[in-house]
Predict the 3D structure of the following.
Amino acid sequence: MNRSQQSPLPMVETAFLASTASLIWLINYYFPLGPLLRIFFPVPMALVYLRWGKRASWMSALVAGLLLSVLMGPTRSILFVMPYGLQGVLLGVLWKRRASWEVAIALTGLLGAFGVFFRVWLVSLLLGEDLWVFFTVQMTQLLNWGFEKVGWLIQPSLTLVQVLSIVAILINSFVYVFVVHLGALVLLDRLGNPIPRPPQWIQQILALDSDDEAT
């Protein structure tokens, strides 16, 4: 802690990683590369927490949001901070405390799902249209297609459609955070800031992969 107070290195790294997070978001927005860059949205803030603690991590999320506000406008800046900036800080907390993957994925996945609902609310407010209706229409079409395939001549209720929409958002959020863990496992180990080890079955798969590469 004394080193962090006396050295300019924490400030430099915090600013650098905040700008890195902003750049990743900016590139992905204008030149989307599928899920590749999205994996690393929250990682810079988590890395700052692992290296320099809570205050620096919050500062990195704030600075990244301010940079994006200047470059892309406040709306897209908010959509980065919520949920990815907050997820990065939360991941840093959990990884620093050596929380298990199950706990970390559950908590950050719930935060990510809340971020989806926040995004729907914010964009709906700005556009003057309820985007949740779009979600329910898409889910209704998917259910109708599935029912037709299995030969069920029934119409899904609105309650069922909304429940399944929420479940789909939760599953997507948990899968995303799981992939973030896999990316961070490789990247942060090489940077000298390892995260907690994955469950045994994942370690076995990774060991098999490394054995295959060796052969």
The first helix runs from residue 2 to 6. The chain is about 85% helix and 0% strand.
